[in-house]
Fold this protein.
Amino acid sequence: VNFDEKREKDLFNLNIRSGVNSSSLFIQNVAVSSRDTDFGSEIGWRFGIEAEFILPFHKNKWAIIIEPTYQQFNSKKETTNWNYNVDYKSIELPMGVRHYLFLNENAKFFMNASFIIDFSIDSTIGINSGNGLEIKTRSNSAYGLGYKHLDKYSLELRYQTSRDLLNGYTYWISDYNTISLIFGYSFF
């Protein structure tokens, strides 16, 4: 008979996650090449809440994650003929899987793979103080590596694949990329 106390496994975590994004944007007009513009990299912030569902098999090493996140990107660029003003705000909805690599009872590494649906909020690329282009995004994916300590604190480096911000425009193509450093705190 084993009299050891059976520990309850925590199968759900709710985490506050904030951090910084390093994002870059390049827009291209296939009809008029003089309108092509590289906005370079900008630092912005992000804030999200992550729901993590630990799967009760394979020693709790796998989880499903959902993380609604607010993010923004603002930039201005003046070229010889054009003045651009980017005001991009959105709610990202990453949904994916996480795999843990346990180091000891208090520390573990993790890897993420997520599919991101993006909902832009009154976002535009203004051209020469005019109405400009409404930002309509496409989905993309993200991959992250991180470390979690005491099942409370986490740090993650995340790379997002390219996202098209000008979806639906015939002559415009865009390339938006993000790398994020994310700090997390699990409150249950």
Notes: The mean pLDDT is 93.
